[in-house]
Design a protein that fits this description.
Its EC number is 2.7.1.175. By secondary structure, the chain is α+β, with helices and mostly antiparallel strands. The chain has 2 domains: 168 residues, no CATH class; 247 residues, Aminoglycoside 3'-phosphotransferase, Chain: A, domain 2 (Alpha-Beta Complex), CATH 3.90.1200.10. The protein is 43% helix and 19% strand. Strands 4-5-9-10-8-7-6 form a 7-stranded antiparallel β-sheet. Strand 7 and strand 8 form a beta hairpin. Helix 3 packs across helix 5 and helix 9 crosses helix 11. The protein is globular. It starts with a helix and ends with a helix. It binds adenosine-5'-diphosphate and ligand LMANGFYV. The site of adenosine-5'-diphosphate has 21 residues, from strand 8 and strand 10.
Length: 444
């Protein structure tokens, strides 16, 4: 039998080669130059061996902490793939256990069942989520950001005001990184077994449309516009609940100036890594400048920060928003700051564009399908903004009346996506790039 220390040594020795293949590893854009353990905590010494490890991944000057769960039950020693090891984590939360620097806790009024086995969800994303029966989902944040994770903070705030469009938070795991700051490393929430994510629903609708080449989006059975409008209601209500829970304030001229400056800075940074963006830089800059000149009075508050169709779930009780962590590639202080809710609206609008065009990636040019994709995106974007306007709080108002600012947020998001796709899914780079070409009118 291999002991905890030997296992950890083996895993750490193999990690530099294995990281680039992990969906959750956010540094695929440059080589891993080193991995060193920061904290190693044995959660179970034997049968199954379960060790929590915080590692620091170095990529040249960039150094970032990630968490691993190491075990002896699976060939790759990733204990998140072992049902019994995953079950131990839930039991530790239910028990309110403390092991070394790790504090496991249930939320104050949550009554948790022990003894359930856990399985990783198949659609692995930036983090690793484990599902227990049809009851709970535990998200283990892979890249660790010192401090309370906005996902947990905003879920708690929304629960406190009775928000109906989120999954209830049920527990947490907190650790301590190098500087001694408590850091959220896991969040347990109510699992919605009947949920279908918005991306799956939207892309099914697009597929149905593409299969009926000569019909328009409002003529096919899988029309999504009604759902898009209801999603608009849900997003507006979550914004109103966040405002009720945590307040809002009018943005000062400085804030708008800084927001637009951050867009320009992001553009400068991304174009360095992705020269394909170069032809669009002048048009992007003037769209950002136009937003600065015309922003007028805007209200800022806590927002979702990375809203897209993969972050919304359709359940029998309506649309829910998940994953309030913000963009994984954005500095955490910016993610925790007060921002315009129009940013989230822009995120969903981008997502409709993605859903419409993803089937065309790598396919031969087909005029008919290109026109249908544009029609689908236009119809659903309009339905979503209409729904949002119907339910928006008075401080946010109708996004359609903030055209230039919304366009700038959309383009800024598309620039972020260029960086994200370059680092994670290079074959998808054409999706945000062709959107930028369309929106700025600079040709594809
Ligand atoms: N409460 C929930 N009920 C059902 N499924 C969920 C729930 N929360 C998340 N999921 C599923 O897990 C996936 C990943 O969750 P998410 O919070 O977006 O993690 P990540 O930060 O890794 O992107 C989602 O796309 C969704 O399919
Ligand atoms: O869900 P995450 O927090 O991991 O968000 C990251 O990954 C997303 C992709 O999984 C990425 O979203 C982009 O692709 C989506 C389709 O897969 C599309 O619906 C979104 O509009 C588009 O932004 C997201 O940007 C990234 O932060």
């Amino acid at each position: 039998m291999t002991g905890p220390n030997e296992l950890v040594d083996k895993v750490l020795a193999e990690l530099p080669d294995q990281l680039p293949a992990q969906r959750w590893f956010g540094g695929k854009d440059r080589p891993v130059t080193g991995v060193r353990p920061l904290r190693t905590t044995v959660l179970n010494a034997a049968d199954p061996v379960l060790v929590h490890v915080v590692v620091e991944v170095a990529q040249g000057d960039r150094r970032e902490p990630y968490q691993l769960l190491v075990g002896d039950r699976t060939d790759d020693h990733d204990a998140t793939h072992d049902a019994e090891s995953a079950g131990l984590l839930l039991d530790l939360i239910a028990d309110g256990a403390r092991v070394d620097h790790l504090a496991f806790a249930a939320e104050p009024d949550a009554e948790l069942h022990r003894g359930l086995r856990g399985r990783p969800i198949t659609s692995e994303q930036s983090n690793t989520s484990l599902v227990y029966g049809s009851q709970y989902i535990l998200k283990l944040f892979r890249k660790l950001t010192p401090g309370d994770n906005p996902d947990l903070v905003l879920h708690r705030a929304l629960t406190a005001v009775g928000c109906e469009h989120i999954a209830r938070p049920l527990g947490s795991i907190t650790g301590t990184l190098g500087d001694g700051r408590p850091t959220t490393i896991g969040m347990l929430a109510q699992f919605l077994p009947d949920a279908v994510d918005g991306w799956a629903m939207a892309t099914t609708s697009v597929r149905d449309l593409m299969a009926e080449g000569d019909l328009h989006p409002d003529e096919v059975g899988g029309d999504f516009a009604g759902e898009a409008q209801r999603l608009g209601h849900a997003v507006a209500r979550v914004h109103a609940d966040l405002e009720r829970a945590l307040g809002s304030e009018p943005a000062a001229d400085d804030d708008i100036g800084q927001t637009v400056q951050a867009m320009r800075d992001r553009l400068d940074a991304v174009v360095e890594d992705v020269p394909d963006l170069l032809p669009y830089v002048p048009a992007l800059r003037s769209a950002f400048d136009a937003a600065a000149d015309t922003a007028g009075a805007i209200s800022i508050q806590h927002i979702h920060g990375d809203l897209h169709l993969g972050q919304v779930l359709r359940t029998v009780q309506g649309w829910l928003l998940i994953d309030f962590e913000g963009e994984p590639g954005t500095p955490v202080d910016e993610r925790r700051s007060l921002r315009s809710p129009l940013r989230d609206v822009a995120g969903v609008l981008r997502s409709f564009d993605y859903a419409a065009h993803q089937l065309l990636v790598g396919a031969a040019e087909d005029h008919q399908l290109t026109v249908r994709a544009l029609e689908w995106a236009r119809r659903n974007r309009a339905a979503f903004t209409e729904g949002y306007a119907e339910a928006a709080s008075s401080s946010v108002g109708d996004p359609r009346e903030r055209g230039r600012l919304l366009r700038a947020f959309e383009l800024d998001k598309a620039v972020y996506e260029v960086a994200y796709e370059h680092a994670n899914r290079p074959e998808w780079l054409t999706v945000p790039l062709s959107s930028i070409a369309r929106i700025t009118g600079e040709g594809a």
